[in-house]
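Notes taken during the Thursday session

The instructor put the following on the board and asked us to keep it in front of us for the whole hour. The protein is Histone H1-like protein Hc1. We were told not to look anything up and to reason only from what is written here. First, the residues (59 in total):
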Amino acid sequence: MEKFAKVKELLASVEADAEKFYNAGNSAAGTRVRKAMQDLKVLAQDIRAEVTEKKNTAK
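Then, after some discussion, the predicted structure tokens were revealed:
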């Protein structure tokens, strides 16, 4: 559950940069959004592995 909270925090923190990129055309904000999305991908993969492991050990 700790990693899921980190995902929520990351999404909240990148929201302003996403708005700057899409609405104002700020390319530096786009770079920050891309980095945050990569971090999100890594966190999501970690969560998937954790869930799979927990599911398989419960059997």
